[in-house]
Amino acid sequence: MAVLTTLVLGSALSVPAPYEVQEMQQFNGKTVILAAYVSPDAVGHSLLIVRNGAGKTLWKQYLGWKYHIESVNKNITVRTVRPDRRTFLRVFDLQTGEKLGEREVVEATPTQP
Hints:
- The protein is mainly beta.
- 11% of the residues lie in helices and 54% in strands.
- It has one helix spanning 2-13; strands at residues 20-27, 30-38, 44-51, 57-63, 65-72, 75-81, 87-93, 99-105.
- The strands form two sheets. A four-stranded antiparallel sheet has the order 1-2-3-4, with no helix packed on it. The chain has a four-stranded antiparallel sheet with strand order 5-6-7-8, with no helix packed on it.
- A hairpin with a 5-residue loop joins strand 3 and strand 4.
- It is globular and about 40 Å long.
């Protein structure tokens, strides 16, 4: 039983090279993994992966820079920054991976008096 648990856990944590796991959370019995790497030309890359309890990949989406994931109802929201420095919120259905929406976010910066 311990060997089976280790195999399933190992498959849940493995991500394609050269990505490395940055954040992992459990939502509704599924494992949500956010993985990232920085290429030699200093461009950040992120990958959102959803796997079932047996570690099988249900779907994945390639993203820009990762900031944060959160679960709202039965959806996953990911905040990313693209190479052109524009920030976006993207919402995915947890079950299917369907993109439900995307919007640009304007980040407010403090001003000096």
